[in-house]
Structures are given as structure tokens and as C-alpha cells.
Design a protein that fits this description.
The chain is of the alpha+beta class. It is built from 16 helices and 36 strands. One of its GO terms (cellular component) is PeBoW complex.
Length: 810
Amino acid sequence: MASRNVNRKRKIPLEVEEIEGSLENFVQNGAADIGSDNEDDELAFLKKGGLLDARQSDDEDGGSEDDHQKEDEDEDEEEEDESEYDSDDYSGEDEAEEEDIDSDEIPSDDEGSTAVTKEMKNASIKVTEGEEEIAHYSDLDEDLPPGTRVVMDSTGNPRYLYPEIVPNYDSDDTDAGKEENAIGNIPLSTYNLFPHIGYNINGNKIMRPAAGKALDELLDSIELPKGWTGLVDKNTGKELKLSDEELRIVSQIQRGRVADELEEKDLEYAPTVAWFSSKTEIMPLSSAPEPKRRFVPSKHEAKRVMKIVRAIREGRIVPNKPQEDTKPKYFDIWADEAPARIDKMALPAPKLPPPTHAESYHPPLEYLPTPEEAEKWKDQDLEERDRDYLPKNYNSLRVVPGYDRFVKERFERCLDLYLAPRVRRKKLNIDPNSLLPKLPSPRDLRPFPTTCSTVYKGHKGRVRTLGVDPRGQWLATGGDDGTVRIWEILTGREIWRVKIGTGQESGGEAVNVLKWRPGREGGILAAAAGEDIYLLVPPVFDAATEIQGRELLAAGWGYAAILSENGVSRKEPPAKWTKPTDRQAEQGVGAIVTVGMPVKQMSWHRRGDYFVTVSPEGTNKSVLIHQLSKHHTQPPFRKSKGLIQAALFHPFKPHLLVATQRYIRIYDLSAQKQIRTLLPGSRWISSFDIHPGGDNLLVGSYDKRLLWHDLDLSSKPYKTMRYHEKAIRSVAYHQGTGMPLFASASDDGTIQVFHGRVVADLMENAVIVPLKVLKGHTVTAGLGVLDVEWHGRECWMFSAGADGTARMWN
């Protein structure tokens, strides 16, 4: 078929000659009948006779005789090579030849067939208007691409329809390469039911390659071709074959090596075989006996030893040669310096005092302290002790132990030598009072309590606690006799009493703490005696207030009954709520809460529905929060951190402040987490109170320290005050507006009153001014003032003493 196509291509010049001869006869015979003006008829005649294409072809090739001669020579050669070709067959296949001429087998310009290409280009341009011609070939632009059509649009103007551009290797696209499948991430299985496998970049279909027969597939599976993988190329749909280089890279990756490493045959050395490793083998690698040379002394080593010996004899090697001192040499640059002139103002270095008899390991008896003196010395602070050691007696020097403060004393001695003054300086005449900060005068800070106006007597034993009702009319006290007494503040008369404890004098419980419920409604008083907490409604208020208080206490019984019926609380409750007996109800007792451990401190929430109690001996149940409206008790902590001393609610935030012996921790009840830890620096915290503003804290301790904490400033105390001679028992802020006062009560029988003004400006610190020292309570059995409380509105202060009295100061 290829030879026939070649012959057909070479026959085109012969046909052109025949057409030229026909054209000459036409011109001689029929040119006179056709007018030159009728160009349409002439064009139709030429197209009908098939002469237009041949004429145009002849015109394009007529100017090049060399090309015609070259084509004739090529034709003669091909006729000799293809002698079996029959000319009769060619003449009978004119229509097929014309179809072949219109195909892609027409030679290009490079092969010397320019005329034929132009002829085919002009013949491919169709000028139509339905079935009629609308233009001549001479009117068309010869630069139009093949296959262009000219049609009439809706306005009657010609419109060119260009053929679709199919890129091929003959185009000027230098990037044209392998036909890529542009279906993206779509799997090929989507096209299983279609004859194509995707689309190329121009949107043309990529047809599925013809599948081999079953026998070919069997042979391919048996005789695997080189580079066969069994995979299908996604882009073309054909079998994926790998080159030798790609197969080598895959082999390297399978062996766990870098893909671009050299092959083993290219390596200089063979791979190492680890014959000797850390693994202990059972059988030896070789069972051959040890050779004799391993047991014969080495001659080479003997020669080496003799060589060393000869060098030692000749002195070239010196054994045990002393090493040169490489340490740097120092010179005393002050050796020849003249002694410095002694200045009269110079001071000699301080000297240690000579040892005394008390520092001896066997001192006289008068220098040895008694057990009471030794215990007192241990309880004192380091700065308060008269000496740094305690004299002890030993029978001999051999039994004297090492001095535990030796390093500490040597360090202090070095500091004395380093920081000691070397020159006398003139003393500055400065008044010490001028160095003190200027504080306002107490006269300018009035009002504040100065004198004792009323004494409340009636308790037998100590008065441990007291409280002022929210209305400011009644004073409640509790003492060692187990009674709770209500006093009228202005007159000092005892109005009502109830006995809730057996009394400490008879070995029973004393009333340790009592607190009034906040708010004017109800008039409920909570008092703790031993393990029981009594919720009282004293009959000192009007009937409506008393009934309201009893209703508040009785409302929780129904809720507790519902919980018990539904079985909500399966575990043993931390506290037990019980109803009072008839006799106790007549005395004003509304409910009794039993917690299991003696209650030492109590505090109410500002809304009056919750109150917290502290039992230091209760371990994980030291702190309990009680809800009045539901008669429910719950411990907020699973495990207590240290011995808890007191607990308070924040004035307006959902925070709970818990004080242990040395720390104060702040907990967020809504988030159920600890948010801060305060470090007062005292040994044992006795009590603390929070400022009404919520940003300052007052802490009292048994080591005679009164600490002021600014929560916005630091976790350490802002100011430490030492005005008491003995332990501080109670501290309290004045909760009224416009009364920046606070007080501290101590076992020395005094009450210190201070002015503490707090401003909202964070750049200004609190102003603390001591105002007055109140004395009136008698110290009994080493105890003085046990509790202190402020009036809600007035600058009146109430105190409870160990002498069995309660006092009001105004």
C-alpha cells in the first residue's frame, strides 16, 4: 500500500500536463464564445471541468524548470524500481486518487511539492450560501487556513468559519510532547464502560488502546517482556514499563538503600560481614586447634625490646624523667613596697570577742540553762535570742559533736571583714523623727473608739465569742458555761439565754463560735458547741421576724425528705441535720447540724443561704459548706492541705479563702480550682479577715504579728506590724461605709485600733495609722481578749475577754 501511494504522488505532474493540453484546446476553440465580463460563468466552467486546480498548480510550478526536471528523474527511478505497477489500474481509480490527494499523504514543502500543497489549500476553501456560490476564489485571501468556510449571517454579511486547530508535531509548539490525560484525580475505573479513557488538554477524547487477544495476553503473561510491571499507566491507559535505570532505583529502595547509591559491583570493597559481635555463640566459628606460633615468644617483640634497652643505655631514652613544672609563677609585686602611712581616721578590722565560760564544753553549773530556759530559748526568734548557741556540758572533749553553725558563723565573719568600715566618718546630725513617714494626726482621723462605755457581765468562765445582729440592736455572746446570751446593746441588759452545751467547767462543750445570719429578715443565729451547730431564732424580735426565721429553717426539711426517699445520697453524709426536741423548739432552736468534730470557726455567705464551718481535727472534712434552704452539707475538698484554721467567703466574688498554719489559699468555687496562694510568713495563723472592698486582707498570728496583704500588689505581706507583746487571737475590719478602721485583740489584754484607708487608685498604697490602744480586760490564765467585733453602722467595737466579761468601746 505504501508503494502505491508513492506512485500516486509521483503521477501528479503527468496529470497537470494533460490538463494544460486540454486548456490550450479550450482557449483556441471556445474562448471566443465566453465573454471576459462573465467571470462567474468562466469560474463555473473551470470548476466543472476540473481545470482550475490544475491551472493553479501549473502556475505555481511553471517558473521552476529545475524542479520539474528533478521530479522527472525521481519518477523514472521509481518506475524502474516499481515495474510491477500497472498503469491501467491507475487510470481506473481517478476518484480514489483524488481522495488520496486530499489526505495527509501529500508531501510537504520540504519535499519540493509546493504547488500541490497550494492547490489543495485553495480547493479546501468552500464559499457557500446554502447551495449557491457567493464569491470567487480570486476574492478570497490566500492566507486563510485550509478548511475555512464562508457563510451568510443574519445580516447578510459573509462570516468565516475556521476549522478546529489540532496540534501535531508539525506545529510550532515546541512543548508538544507525549499526550497527557487531563482527568486529574478521577480513577480510570470510571471509564470502564466507555470507549475512551479520558481527555487531553484540548478536550479531545483519548481512545482506549486496542486490547490483545486472549492468546496474546497468555503469551505476555508467560513470556514477560523487559520492563514489565503488570500496572497500567494512568495517563495513557497502556501497560506501564520501566527502564533499566528505573528498575535499578526500585531495587535500591527495596533493599533499604539510597536510590542514587552505587551498585555493589561498582563498590571498591565487598560488604562487611560481622563475624565478631556482642552475641555469644554456642559453637565456635572454627574447630581448628590453636597454632604453635601463638605459644612461642615473638621474635619481633624481642627485637623491639632490645631496641628500647639499647636506647636507654645510650641515653636517648630517659625513664622516669621528671616533668617540668607547668604551673604559672607568681611574683609578689608588693614585696618592695613601703608600708602605708597609718591614717588617724582609719579603723582596724573588727576582731572577734574572746570566748567565755559559757562556750566551754564543760562550763560551770551557773552557765548551764535550766530546762525551762532552754525551752524558752528555742521558742524565741533568731533575732531575739541573746546568744546564738545553747551551753551544754560534756564529760570529755572526745564526745563533743560538730558545731552545726560553724559554716554560718564563718560566713558572717567574712561579711564582717568585707563590709566593715575602714575610715572614720563624721556623724551626720539628722533628727531620726524626720526620717519617719509623715502620717496624719489621730485627731484628724476621728471618730474611733477610745473608752469603754458598757460592760456585759453574766457568763461563768471565759467569754469566747460574740456577734452583733445586722440591725445593730442586739449583742449575742457565748462562753465556757455552754450558754448563748442576748444583750441589749444600749442598756447592757440580758434579754434572753439558752443553754446548748453542757459547759466546760463540768467537762462538757463550750460555745466556741456564733455568727448572725446576714440580712434583716429572719433573725437567725448560728452557734457551735462541740460537734453540734444550733440554728436559733431568739424571741427578741417582733412576731413577723420570728415567724419568718422559723419558716426559713423549716423549708429545708421537705427538700431533705425528698432526697432521702429518692435515694440520692448513697454515701454517708458529712453532716447530719436533725429536728430539735419540743423543749429545744420552745427555747428557740430551729435545727441542729452534727458534723462529727468540734467546730472552731464559722462564717456566713453574704446572701445568707450558705455558711462554712471549720473543724481543725476533721482532716478531709475540716471545711464543710452548709446550705440552709436545702439542709444539705458538702465538703469542698477531698483532702486538706495542712491544719486548717479559718475559712471566709469573699464579699462579692465566688471565692473561698482558707487559712492553714502558714498559708492562705484562694479557691474559685465556680471553676472548682485554686487560683492563688498567699505567703504571710508567720509561724501559726490564728485568724484573718477580708476588707469590704475585697482587695486587702488582714492576718493575725500567734507569733505576735499583724500582717496586711494587698492582693493586687503581691502574694507577700504589704506591711508587718508588731504592736502586741503576746499572741494575737482575733482581727476584724469595720464593714460599714466611711469607717476605714480595723482592730486586733491579743492575749496581753489590749486591743489595738488602726486607721486603714484604701483608695481605688492602684498607684497609691494603703495608708495605715495606729490610733489607740484599748485596755480594760484582765489577763486570766495567760489569756486576754479572745474575740473582737465591730458594729454594723457605728464606730462601736465589742470585745470578749477571758475574764468573763464582754465590753463595748465607743
